[in-house]
Amino acid sequence: KMVVSKHGDDLDNKAIIGINWQGNPKHIHDEKRSLSLEEILNTLELDNILVSFQFRPTDEEKILFEKYNIINLDPYIDDMYDTATFLNQVDLFVSVDTAQAHLAGSMGVKTVCLMPHNFEDYRWGYEGKTKLYESMKIMRLDIL
Predict the structure, then answer these.
(1) 40 by DSSP, 3-state: which?
(2) Which residues touch 66 (CB under 8 Å, ≥6 apart)?
């Protein structure tokens, strides 16, 4: 699990973590690069403030939002400018291979991109840091 904390238990000291678990379902490799919300939650310490950047979350995902107190930004994001505005407010962005991950990396937002072990893509590299973005780390998962 990724441990992210601002060294405190009160709301003001919790880290704000943006999450995105699915990319474009029409992408040729979507089944290899997208996760379920449950899978991404299993990678995180849940005692932080979680903010969903997911486009059009399902009703089932919205139930999990309530269970885990996840803030849903979908009603407030219409374009990349809106996305960038909210990305500037997070302490960490955790995502699969999406346009949002690229945007966060290009903005210098501290980002972890979750990638499957069996999905090779020269753009991301194969472990740890990527040459694409200084602020991004690649975390390979067996669950994909």
Answers:
(1) helix
(2) none
Spell out the alpha helix ranges (H) of the chain: 30-33, 37-41, 59-68, 80-87, 99-107
pLDDT digits (tens, 9 = 90+) for 17-36: 999 998 777 766 666 678 88
Tens-place pLDDT, residues 30-73: 666 788 899 888 888 778 899 999 999 999 999 999 999 999 99
Q: Where are the beta strands (DSSP E) in 2-143?
A: 16-20, 49-52, 71-72, 92-95, 111-116, 128-129, 136-141
Whether 65 and 52 have beta carbons less than 8 Å apart is answered as yes
Q: Give the pLDDT of residue 66.
A: 95
Q: What are phi and psi of 6, to 5 degrees?
A: -105, 25
| Phi and psi torsions of 18, nearest 5° | -85, 140
- For tokens 């405190």, name the residue: 8
CA distance 86 to 93: 10
Q: b vs e for 75-105, b when ≥16 Cβ sit within 10 Å of the residue's Cβ?
A: eebeeeeebbebbeebbbbbbbbbebbbbbb
